[in-house]
């Protein structure tokens, strides 16, 4: 079945409490929402993530919203994830995790101008600490080098965060190196992330930032 055909056949049924039953093409899988798979090698598993994200009721907490965004990403629905993240940010404008999500998803969707504008607005509103290169430097690098400029800027920002004592996920660093075509550096960081059981590894199946690594047997 194609993904589109599977999508027309899939639905989520609440079973009471936090239990959910997922029905697709005659097959049934049920699990507790708190035990939903983080990423699946199967099309059914990815459809579970998308269906659960769409099934979540609006108006949840920041953590609820972020989980729904991640589920949409894992299902490869980056356009829908961006819309969800933008809506969540409007409701929770003081949450850095949502600012980060909207910026990252804008880049994934190829909208660098929006990513720069968002960083400028975030800085103007005091929603981001003044660490590392600022919004003006981001705008300059994007003008000069496009998406590569963004990811080089991102690496410098992550360095500044870490130097200030803020934990930085090795997956975040690996994504920047991957986007810049720095395969060995990216894979070394992903190995570190595996050892740390970093939940951001769930992005490996669908995020296009990892496309430069996919032919490499070490990534597989």
Can you describe what's shown?
- The chain has 220 residues and is mostly helical.
- Helix content is 56%, strand content 8%.
- It has 10 helices and 3 strands.
- The protein has helices spanning 3-9, 43-55, 62-74, 78-91, 96-108, 112-124, 135-145, 147-163, 170-179, 183-195, and strands at residues 10-14, 19-24, 27-32.
- The chain has a 3-stranded antiparallel beta sheet.
- Strand 2 (19-24) and strand 3 form a beta hairpin.
- The chain is globular.
- Residues 1-41 have low confidence and may be disordered.
Summary keywords:
10 helices, globular, three-stranded antiparallel beta sheet, 8% strand, mainly alpha, 220 residues
The number of helices is 10
Distance between the termini: 24 Å
**Rg result:** 18 Å
E-strand count: 3
Which regions contain 5 or more consecutive residues with pLDDT less than 50?
A: 1-41
The proportion of residues in beta strands is: 5-15%
Largest sheet geometry:
3 strands, antiparallel
Shape, principal axes of CA atoms: globular
DSSP helix fraction: 55-70%
**Helix and strand pattern:** HEEEHHHHHHHHH
Structural class: mainly alpha
Arrangement of strands in the largest sheet: 1-2-3
Mean pLDDT: 78
